[in-house]
Amino acid sequence: MVTKTKTSTNTQSSTKNKTQSITVAEISQRIEHHLKFTLDEQINVDQKPAYWRATSLALNDIIVEKLQNTKARQQQSEVKSVNYLSLEYLMGRLLSNNLHNLGLYTNTEKALKTMGFELADLCEQGADLALGNGGLGRLAACFLDSLATLDYSAMGYGVHYQHGLFKQSFADGQQIETPDMWREFGSPWEICRPESSQTIPLYGHIEEVAQANGTIKSVWHAGKTLKGVPWDVPIVGYNSDTVNALRLWECRADNAFDWDTFNHGDYLQAHQQQVAAETVSKVLYPNDEHEAGKELRFVQQYFFCACSVQDIIARFENQYGALAEQSHWQTFCEKVAIQLNDTHPTIAILELMRTLIDNHNVDWDNAWAICQKVFAYTNHTLLPEALEKWSVALFQRVLPRHLSILYRINEAFLNDDVNALWPNNDDMRARLSLIEEGHEPKVRMAHLCVVTAHRVNGVAQIHSDLVKQDLFPEFDQLWPTKLTNVTNGITPRRWLKACNPLLANLLDSTINADWAKDLNRLSELKHLADNADFQQQFMAIKQQNKIALTKEIKKLTGITVSPDAIFDVQIKRLHEYKRQHLNLLHIISLYRQLLANPELDMQPRVFIFGAKAAPGYKLAKEIIYATNKVAEKINNDIRIQDKLKVVFLPNYRVSLAEKIIPAADVSEQISTAGKEASGTGNMKLALNGAVTIGTLDGANIEIAEEVGDDNIFIFGLTVDEVKALDAQDYNSYQYYQNNAEIRACLDWLDTDYFTPGNPGELSSIKESFLAGGDPYKVLADFQSYADAQLALDKAYRNPSQWAKMAILNTALMGKFNSDRSIEDYVQNIWHLTVSK
Ligand code: GPW
């Protein structure tokens, strides 16, 4: 094996404690330096943004030094590294998290105090990095945090969207979308790396060229090239030596290619090409779990995959020397893992095959063996509308060479693997083929992933079981060890230490260990769950967090809520399968009961929603509108004596989640069983002492296993019961006819009670339950949900019982640390070793 010369000893000393020893005075100095020299700041004008930027820049200097040390150390130790390919990263804000992870929060707080600023207040200045839609993108962000914390060598690859997820506001209850401008004035966290730019070919045609040795070589003559420019965002590990990078690709026109146009004097036309190229990384597609099949999205996916694969090879060659001989690719397999975050980056497989064969003269069998060793794939959904299929015609036009490679993979797969197990079985061939035949033939991206990857994982045990049983049963028969599970997790740094400082302090003083690194240590709280003193401290913190949220609610919506009410929270993307409309139906029912009996004995409750709907998802937008209209009526109805309030917070995002979660009493996890692959909000809320009301779906099942049946409210159909209902033709009308409460609530929606003067505005929701067939079994689960809510209300009114439940939820969330998820990936899929 040819490698670059290695220095004999590791000269990098541990920087872990070095950053923690940076003094208050030094931090002040660094901030002042940036105020003076980078920002040329005239003090007195708009100080907060300037101090936020100067503080971020000062911190970034420290981080970049650590990044360089990490790189040197990782290169020296020649450890294997993982490349996480994801079209989405929901990073949120970075300042407070980076400070916590470096152990510099307190000293920076002190430094800023002497300058007249509250650090917590300054942190609010930063824009969220919202380069993702929901759970899948936030999971990627948590995984990067854990990889760096655990000192693994890892690179996140993503797209440098000019506009992340849209901003949401409400106008008369309707969702309005406006563009996200996260880097309008630049971001202090990103480093442009022009030297690592890539040139990406696409379109054009293939020429079959006869070789001297009698073989035929395919030569791709591209019709167009794009340029990929990388921006690196440093990823700081918590209390560790490691700073990894998230590398985001921005698309530009390839000037070299357009030189001709310039020379022919068509200056403006050349600029047009620049504009066209920039659209490729212009905007994040806002569809969560829904494939729209647009050409620009396909080009975006390919552009991202090609840049990332070329960069992975370039980094490898830079470290281990140019790879002219096939034998060197063995080393590649030993040093490189590539994880596909759902099927969105599937084209990376074809791009690596193409590069090995066309540019590095690797023969087919070896190239295929390499891809199988390097790639692994995570499946995040069973929903048919989210399973990506790209039209063969589009593939042919944009990526003709990649399509020809795909055909050959398919041929080998069908003729060798499928035929071996099911000889001459055309039905099986059609079912498993990478191509779905029909009026418009399509490429099944998930099939390509499963056929290639050495491991395919689901994201919670039940989901992984269903991936085996229902989604890919034949693949499981073909390769019995390929399909596996890695239950999701969340980083306790952002989702407890940074977002809930009061609770974090209590844990610091109660647990004699760095619980943010070893979350299982929280189980020591179990013995305090019955302790009246501890209960009082724990619930006093919850109360303070609720008071803080009360103020935020007032500021954002004008609505006054009482912190003595139950704070009942449903925060997640708006989707029928997540069933925000089940929650709404129950709210309407409670309201009806209160109007009938204003003395109804119940704990006052505030229902808090946060959710964005995909701009093209009509029913989801109608559910938002209906919730806002119902809220308006309830919140202004004095007859119910403030027993019920409904708050829909606008523009739900990571930084808003960080304010809601510490204040939640109840966590709504009410998806139709079998539909939510895992969920991760469920873990964040429980970790912060919220009690779950939920179905036996996704990770709820594992949360229930951890906390025990007494500390969670489970209701509704199980996966098997949902399947049985479907098998016997579920009839939602029956529930409407037989349950007077359901009938009264749904009929109410047809009137103009909630939309005065406009009857029928909310009827589409009722229609989706009845004429629409209620695909997500809302009516079937309603009664069981209402019963569970009643039990929950009763439990809350016993303060020590509730405190015990809340404490046990925090105590027993150790399993859901994303560090554990990462260790599972390392052991079963990536086989990395630490570098520190
Ligand atoms: F459709 N998830 C998501 F599977 O947030 F690709 N966006 C998506 O596009 C998809 C999945 C996809 C979510 C799952 O819905 C959620 O259950 C899971 O916890 C999360 O991914 C992370 O695994």
Automatic annotation (TrEMBL):
The keyword DNA-binding does not apply. Its EC number is 2.4.1.1. GO terms for biological process: glycogen catabolic process. One of its GO terms (cellular component) is cytoplasm. Keywords: Allosteric enzyme, Carbohydrate metabolism, Glycosyltransferase, Pyridoxal phosphate, Transferase. One of its GO terms (molecular function) is pyridoxal phosphate binding. It catalyses: [(1->4)-alpha-D-glucosyl](n) + phosphate = [(1->4)-alpha-D-glucosyl](n-1) + alpha-D-glucose 1-phosphate. Its cofactor is pyridoxal 5'-phosphate. The modification N6-(pyridoxal phosphate)lysine is found at K684. Phosphorylase is an important allosteric enzyme in carbohydrate metabolism. Enzymes from different sources differ in their regulatory mechanisms and in their natural substrates. However, all known phosphorylases share catalytic and structural properties. Allosteric enzyme that catalyzes the rate-limiting step in glycogen catabolism, the phosphorolytic cleavage of glycogen to produce glucose-1-phosphate, and plays a central role in maintaining cellular and organismal glucose homeostasis. NCBIfam families: P_ylase. PANTHER family: GLYCOGEN PHOSPHORYLASE, MALTODEXTRIN PHOSPHORYLASE. Belongs to the glycogen phosphorylase family. This is Alpha-1,4 glucan phosphorylase. It comes from Cognaticolwellia beringensis.
